[in-house]
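Dear colleagues,

As part of the handover before I leave the project, I'm documenting each prediction I ran so the next person doesn't have to rerun anything. This entry is a single chain, and its sequence is reproduced below.
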Amino acid sequence: MKNQDHGTLLADCQSEQDHRRIRIDRVGVKGLRHPIEVRDRSFATQSTVATVSLLVDLPHHFKGTHMSRFVEVLNAHGRLIHVKNLFSIVHALQKRLDAEVAHLIMEFPYFLEKRAPATGAEGLVDYQVRFEAAAYRTETDFVMTAVVPVTTLCPCSKAISDRGAHNQRGYVTASIRSSEPIWIEELIEIVESSASSPIYSLLKRPDEKFVTEQAFDHPVFVEDLVRNVAVRLNAHCDVLWYRVEAENMESIHNHAAYALVEKHSGDNGGG
């Protein structure tokens, strides 16, 4: 490789032969922060900042990969990121890095404006979202994940207590593959409708009364929570696969309660 300023040859160490004959499954860059715009369900765009991983496989005979090319590929595709143009990035990675397999992972905060249930007061709630796109030669794969905070109220506590029941904030991590693109908002709504109550950022006293009573009327164990989400995902005609994890940050214990349910290929949804 020639230095453009001086015309001298520079060593290309990455392209040197490696004699250990060990293929590397994933190599590239992680933790790259990049401004992006994401389309929402109303076809508007939301500006946010993503933490990006760009990865490819490396044949056993190459010593290394060219890290600068990952960033060049990402920058060449601009800021507007949507499910349909993620694959153009992974295909460009395959071509630019001469790879059979390429992965693009983007994690970013996504904001929804939510109205309080009684007064209608508006406030923003943030959700952590992850896009994972991959290309395996000519085949592609896409997984969308949303981490959704919810309120859960313990059914056992309600059943045995004369005055109230303990509740807590829970976090549901829902990952899906689908035959057609599903909006981030839709996945969030599926999760929130499966809990005792959604989370809000702004609540006046009438709203707090509403949320407290709603949670009391809809108690769920952590097991109920993942099963409720699974039932709704099973009923969705476009969902092919899912993994649903729930973690309740217990208010009367010094540990968290956890459950996971996953639909595997060929499952009928019953486990």
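The radius of gyration is 23 Å. The first helix runs from residue 67 to 76.

All the best with the project,
I.
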